[in-house]
Queue: 2 jobs
Job 1
Amino acid sequence: MSYQDGWAALNLEMPDRVPRTEYSVDGYHFALMRRVTGIPVTAESPAQERLRAAQAFRKAWTFDFAWSTLIANQIYKGFCTNMGHASYAAAGSDYDDALYCPFEDPEDVLAFDPWEAYGPIDLADMTRQFEEHYRANAAAYPDEVNMTGIYTTLMSGLIAVFGWDMLLMACGMDGQAFGEMANRYASWMQQFMQALAEADVPCVMIHDDIVWTSGPFIHPDWYRKYLFPNYKKYFAPILESGKKLIYTSDGNYTQFIDDIAATGVNGFVLEPCTDMRYIAEKYGKTHAFIGNADTRILLSGTPEEIRALIRRVRERGLTLRTTMIVGFPGETEDAFRRLMDFVEETRFDRLGAFAFSAEEDTPAAEMPGQVPEDVRQERLDALMRLQARISLENNRRRVGSTCDVLVERKEGHWYVGRSAMEAPEGDGSVWLRAKRPLAPGMFVPARIDGAQVYDVTGVAL
């Protein structure tokens, strides 16, 4: 279900589980890949072996979204800066201490014209390259949402061409001239945006590192005069073509969230230093977002902190859902009782559960404290009986309320659909009576007047 869950999230359809992705583990951290997959892969392994290990790893960890871009430094034909690279990959395989800059002083930067340096591109050929890149990604990771895209969009392109030293000196010396040069770069990059718009691909990634961890490194007014207006020009043909456009920047771009949203992007990719809460509260119903999480932080909350987070979710009127496993090795009767108490207290709107199953060649299958199969099933049955009662009580509280319903089909005299509280396929439905004909795809206001365990009934207004 990874592909379906990934697309559901991008389409704001609330899948049963929160989809996940990761950006570097299968290209850099080979010890982890060996541990998870059992494939003896290293940085020196042939490309096909590394791909096989990556596919096995991503399947084992259920990746839903394959972050990918095609366009990077190769478009500069060697006329760009090499700033070197610190060690990030296992064994330092990505370390690079070769430094080179073709620009002698900031005046060279301000006078730079990419049209003269690189010339026009073959639009049809570039469109073909985007399509081939997307198809190669989809073939490699068929269970994930795939894409193609551009890494060196504007600021990242200027960083790649000039290097940090020249970029900062030139901008500091004459911000207006630097902005005019950025406009020239953007006009040249517009060719790639047009090719991307014409490519037969459903989803594109636009990457641009516009800030540092501390925030903007140029005055915010400069971004709003030179960067974001070019984004709007960039993105217009892509959005007009009907593609999903996802935006990525490293660093803390909290100050520019509204500016980026105004350019028309469909989703944000962000690091923990960008305020994900602000994005969720202001754009959570209109934009997808993919935020990094450190599991040490996720696991560090006290019970009261977790309860406070749940209260904040409730206060914002969001649907609270989760998935639970019972019978994991080491789960005692006391631990299961605490789980049941927590579910009773929290009263999830939607809860799915499954019993642990020992899979061959997995660490969990060999862990001590294995719970007998009949006990696992008993616990699963007890949990789902509890949730069925909670679900019925929650649905009864909806009686008398109104909501918008997306009509999906007709069954007999009933129109069947779902509100914002029901995810497709996995959740219950809203069964409507109507005095006028309704058609699939219509949104209609409705008043809820009946409740069942997982479904509610109502009348179209």
Job 2
Amino acid sequence: MTNKIYHYTECGLKNQFLINGFEIVETDYGPSVFIENVEGLHYAIARSIAEVQPHISGPEFKFVRKQMGLTQKKIGEIYGCDAQTVARWEKVGRINKPADHFIRYLFLGDPIKKSAEQLASSLPDVRKDIALELDGLDWGFESKDLDCAVA
């Protein structure tokens, strides 16, 4: 392992940083990154997006949708729109509030017992980068405040 923070862009998002749970290894083709628990990491990223970000961007919407194993067509059927509308949400920098609340609720589900309004009111006003640290949770990674992680 390394003590450096790794900017994890391979997931398709620009704001993901790993504190640990990765190793930089030398290969015949140069340095490569080994992630210890990719599935757990992707679950933690999706959960952090749904719980932490004040608004979900198009790429984040796409990431959460894919984490749930849903197609654009299926999301459209559930939400009541066509697949092209979902594709447009994913290409735009910021999606509308109803779609934002919808994907959060769909991912987080009933166990948290929060309505979309409660969830929206509990979100911070400032957008954050997300740092993820490997730990003993079921999914392997936990989100941390990047400012605390760097310090």
